[in-house]
Specification:
Blueprint: H1 9-15, E1 21-28, E2 33-40, H2 48-63, H3 69-85, H4 90-102, H5 107-119, H6 122-132, H7 170-177, E3 195-200, E4 203-209, E5 215-222, H8 232-238, E6 243-244, H9 249-259, E7 262-267, E8 272-279, H10 283-296, E9 297-298, H11 304-318, H12 322-335, H13 340-343, H14 347-351, H15 355-365, E10 370-376, H16 380-390, E11 415-420, E12 426-435, H17 443-455, H18 461-468, E13 475-481, E14 492-501, H19 505-517, H20 526-540, H21 547-556, H22 563-572, H23 576-586, E15 593-598, H24 605-608, E16 613-617, H25 619-622
Parallel strand pairs: 4-10, 11-15, 11-16
Antiparallel strand pairs: 1-2, 3-4, 5-8, 5-10, 6-9, 7-8, 12-14, 12-15, 13-14
Helix pairs in contact: 2-6, 3-9, 8-15, 10-16, 17-20, 17-22, 17-23, 18-19, 20-22
Length: 624
């Protein structure tokens, strides 16, 4: 029904724009399970019944055996690849182990599941389809709407501040005495963790070895992102629906499917990604297909209807969420007219898009400096030979501007930017602070320690003072973000966030103001904050497939070795006095600018004005 190449029967309904989307849902539990079909009718012009009829037509094709042996065998290959991929890293492997254990099965049972894939026949699939896809099913429809909300008033008593908030109970004291094996941080080795080969000017291959299975991954990372080319998100959504000049969509994707390979696309602020996965035994054939696509992708304006419909869904739902609106407002406050929501394509511009326009953008992308990241079993020489033979690396001719940095906004007086949403009962508050470029080399790691101490997690000042002691907010955090090392002349930003009920908003903001301008000293917490950062460093260590991407990312920012190693070395010798020095020099007397989304009818706007001049913002001010 669905597969990773978009050639399934339900996928075809989406690709051909017969429905907005359709997918099969299969969840097997120990005592029961669910086999369902989820379908999204097209806006305005399609009924539930019409969409359901199209889905049943595809189901009946399976029940009647209307699929080729080639397609069936390729789907078995895909399933084997997915099984093998789940065992590659500790997270997915742990999930598999938990599932097997909860089902009362052995690890051998799981391995036998993989073996049974080869034994599956067409008749098995047809029999299952006939058995479960009958007229005995539950039919559920859902439409957008609003539900009544219960508003709980703020308690009329003062918060109780515990006298012994930092004391430990006997249980904790005993727990702390239990010996714990020290886990030493694992750092990237730029020289040993990945082989680096220059394939031509501005094109670099990073190679890491896959010692787990015979599945390869190849990521082409072009050094241009959404902040520079505003239609890249639409390009990455459009490319999976098109084919080549010599092959139709069904033929092209079918050939990838037969090889057990996939081709996907993605874009971020700083890069455009072409991601290829498959079996090393079919690497050459896969590269030939990918190279043909990169050189000869064929525009298809009909496939743009799907992009337009998705944009329509976004337009309709975006302003229903106060979280989304708050993010847009913060972008406006931080970056002004450079906000991503003001530089993006408008819906009117999206409707005017043509396939050729997007493929022209794709050509621009392929001319920018590119890092290729191969993880597999082939030698570096063989992987490089096949890549140079099949992929259009000669198109690369322009250096990358990444990391692309937008200028931060500065303000000369306290200001509250306010977006009114009449139907919300909760408020989202962002506090933004412009920080001058950090002067001392050690200020970067100290800023990370300060950020964690002030608002990093549940042990931070913000959580304890605002949430734990007073219950003034259900979500609090803070992050000081500085530019990359090779852009260190640029300023940093400090952003704090509160999410709370409207009647508690002013109280929460007052506590935040006090924390910012008169930060409490809790030296006994510094060691736990350091341990939190050590844990972050350990948890950030990438999987084998992401190793070279991480290394290239650090190099792009100007690092010659893993910056986490330097961070920890500096942080280990830092004390409360270092945090205080950084705080007094960079935070204490700085201007705070608020970005707030809430219901003005449920709050005291006069009290809010104490925090700065109120500037009311409309939808058109923050969203194009």
């Amino acid at each position: 029904m669905n597969n990773s190449n978009g050639t399934g029967f339900l996928d075809k309904l989406t690709v051909d724009h017969k429905v907005m989307g359709a997918m099969a849902v299969n969840q097997s539990m120990n005592e029961a399970g669910i086999l369902g079909l989820l379908v999204f009718p097209k806006f305005f012009f399609q009924t539930y019944a019409a969409a359901e009829k199209l889905v049943w037509k595809q189901i009946n094709r399976i029940k009647e055996g209307d699929f080729s042996d080639e397609m069936f065998q390729s789907l078995k290959l895909e399933q084997k690849r997915e099984y093998a991929s789940k065992l590659e890293d500790i997270n997915s492997r742990a999930e598999v182990m938990m599932r097997i254990f909860s089902q009362g099965k052995s690890w051998q049972d799981y391995l036998d599941e993989v073996t049974r894939i080869d034994a599956l026949s067409r008749e098995d699939v047809i029999e299952v389809a006939k058995k479960y896809f009958t007229e005995n099913y539950m039919y559920v429809t859902k439409k957008t709407g609003r539900y009544p909300k219960m508003i709980l008033p703020k308690p009329d008593y003062s918060p109780i501040i515990p006298k012994n908030s930092d004391a430990s109970c006997a249980y904790v004291e005993r727990l702390e005495k239990i010996p714990v094996q020290e886990l030493k941080p694992h750092f990237l080795d730029f020289e040993k963790d990945a082989e680096v080969v220059s394939l031509r000017p501005l094109v670099t291959l990073y190679k890491t070895h896959n010692s787990v299975n015979d599945i390869f991954s190849l990521t082409l990372s072009y050094g241009v992102g959404q902040l520079e080319l505003r239609d890249l998100d639409k390009l990455s959504a459009y490319l999976p629906f098109v084919a080549t000049e010599s092959m139709s969509f069904e033929v092209f994707r079918g050939k990838l499917q037969e090889l057990g390979s996939t081709l996907t696309f993605d874009s971020t602020d700083s890069e455009f990604l072409v991601v290829v996965n498959g079996f090393d035994g079919h690497f050459t054939q896969t590269m030939a297909l990918v190279g043909d696509f990169l050189r000869h992708a064929k525009p298809d304006d009909k496939k743009l209807r799907q992009i337009v419909d998705e944009a329509k869904v976004t337009e309709k739902s975006l302003f229903n969420s106060s979280e989304n609106v708050a993010d847009m407002l913060l972008e406006k406050v931080k970056f002004g007219e450079q906000s991503r929501y003001l530089t993006k394509l408008s819906f009117a511009e999206i409707k005017k898009l043509k396939g050729k326009m997007l493929l022209d953008t794709f050509s621009k992308v392929r001319s920018v400096a590119c890092n290729l990241h191969y993880c597999g079993t082939l030698s570096t020489e063989e992987a490089a030979r096949q890549i140079k033979l099949h992929l259009p690396l000669e198109e690369v001719s322009i250096p990358s501007n990444s990391p692309y940095i937008r200028d931060l906004m500065t303000y000369d007086k306290p200001t509250v930017f306010f977006m009114d949403m009449e139907d919300v009962t909760q408020s989202i508050i962002y506090a933004y602070m412009y920080i001058d470029p950090l002067k001392a080399k050690e200020d970067r790691p100290i800023s990370r320690l300060f950020s964690a101490y002030f608002g990093g997690d549940m042990s931070s000042l913000m959580f304890q003072e605002i949430s734990e002691f007073r219950s003034f907010a259900y979500q609090v955090n803070a992050r000081l973000k500085h530019p990359p090392l090779n852009r260190s002349e640029k300023p940093a930003s400090f952003v704090m966030k509160l999410a709370t009920h409207t009647d508690k908003m002013i109280d929460a903001m007052e506590v935040l103001e006090n924390l910012v301008h008169d930060m409490p000293e809790r030296p006994e917490r510094v060691e736990s904050v350091k341990q939190t950062i050590r844990n972050w460093v350990n948890n950030e260590y990438p999987t084998s497939r992401s190793l070279s991407l991480k290394i290239a990312g650090f190099r792009r920012e100007g690092y010659e070795s893993d910056p986490n190693k330097d961070y920890l070395e500096v942080i280990d010798r830092m004390t409360m006095e270092d945090i205080l020095r950084f705080y007094k020099e960079n935070i204490q007397d700085h201007l705070m600018i608020y970005a707030i989304v809430g219901n003005s009818k449920s709050m005291d706007m006069e009290k809010l004005s104490k925090f700065g001049q109120i500037v009311k913002v409309t939808r058109k001010d923050i969203y194009k």
